[in-house]
Amino acid sequence: MTSPYVREITREEHLAHLRLHPDVSHLQIPEWAEVKPDWLAESVGWFEGEARIATALVLYRPLPGTRRCLAYLPDGPAIDWLAPRPERLLDPLVAHLEKRGAFSVRIGPPVIVRHWDADTVTAGIADPGVRHVRELPAAGVDGFALDAGERLRGLGWRRCAQDEDSGFGPGQPRYGCHIPLAGRSVDELREALAPHFEQSLRTAESAGVRVSWGTAADLPDFYRLYTATAARDGFRARPPAYFRRMWEALNAEDSDRLRLYLAEYDGEVLSAALMINVGSRVWHSYAASGRRGREVRPSSALLWRMLSDARAAGAETYDLRSVTPALGEDRLLGRLRFKTGAGGRVVEY
After folding, report:
1. Cα–Cα distance for residue pair 272/305, rounded to 1 Å
2. Which residues share a beta bridge with 72?
3. Domains of the chain (ranges plus CATH)?
4. What angle do CA 178, 189, 185 make, to 5 degrees?
5. Using CA atoms, how far apart are residues 92 and 104, in angstroms rounded to an integer?
6. CA end-to-end span of the chain, whole Å?
7. Among 175, 208, 205, CA closest to 190
8. What mean pLDDT comes out for the span 116-122?
9. Residue in 285, 259, 262 with CA at minimum distance from that of residue 209
10. Is 243:223 a contact under the CB 8 Å cutoff?
11. Beta bridge partners of residue 56, listed in sequence order
12. Which pTM does this prediction carry?
């Protein structure tokens, strides 16, 4: 068998490969490089002979005053992580990145090792004796994924340091929340809503909250709510230019790659979020809301509409992104309750 090697590929080659193998993270498509102008970007491919077998987006962060850099593959690379010898593809990747001056390589294997059902997490939140999701019985544990982690550690790879309570740190968050859509009807999704989420949704429907798609012209409304959310939740808001770049870059190859959803009541936009579509997955991103109109539950109506649209478009997974695994007093606990209330299961990578 020919040993694989890695080399730079063109954007067109990368896009051509993704048309045949579309199930990658939105952070691994070449368009994402244009959203991150502070990083240098390179599309790379793995080859066996002349056959291209995999691709990836690499982001480089130069170390000031040197020719060295950090190499980062967010949510990637999209290779077979459960194969018995991951070094067969990782070693030529590292060799290529070292030639580019990388002093450190950060990867984000999109492999789920365990997951917890929404009902289990909801019960854990209500139990004052449970402080962390890992204290709850998992609905599923992937032994092959655990073995893959052990193999990576045996090869010298180390997990990025993270706050055990929050699950956040350098790189991608360790815990996420997914709603499976494949093979499920709208009625089945509705029946899976937690009572508190169903009640909120009924409140929004009765009040006449209207959810619609937005355009680039609506980004200022989104940004107003996003900055309000940042101030309320204590995180640093990205500048408006970031979202304009995202809109233009992600919709350049596919005009339906990025959607903006707006929840409106009495002529005012009260809640908004972005939906990113790649392959069989949808990502719920930058959910935002203000303090006004919270009594009519616009965010519940917004998420339900986005969830329904994703299912209708054929998506198999609705990715609600990161959640906190801490079940005690935590400022992010309300977000976890909201996401699991919509039927999301907590996953650990």
Report:
1. 12
2. 59, 106
3. 5-107 (3.40.630.30), 114-141+148-348 (3.40.630.30)
4. 115
5. 15
6. 31
7. 205
8. 97
9. 262
10. yes
11. 44
12. 0.93
Residue ranges with strand state E in the chain: 5-8, 40-48, 51-62, 69-73, 102-107, 114-116, 140-141, 175-180, 210-214, 258-265, 268-278, 281-289, 317-322, 345-348
C-alpha distances out from residue 92 to 5, 44, 119, 224, 343, Å: 5, 11, 43, 45, 41
Find tokens 């730079």 and name the residue. Answer: 8
pLDDT of residue 47: 97
**Mean pLDDT throughout 66-90?**
95
Side-chain-side CA neighbours of 192 within 13 Å: the count stands at 19
User: What confidence tens digit (pLDDT) does each residue in 156-205 have?
Assistant: 999 987 655 555 556 689 999 999 999 999 999 999 999 999 999 999 99
Give the tens place of pLDDT for each residue, 26-42. Answer: 999 999 999 999 999 99
Tokens of 321: 């992104």
| pLDDT band with cut points at 50, 70 and 90 for residue 17 | very high
Give the per-residue SS3 of 276-315: EEECCEEEEEEEEECCCCHHHCHHHHHHHHHHHHHHHCCC
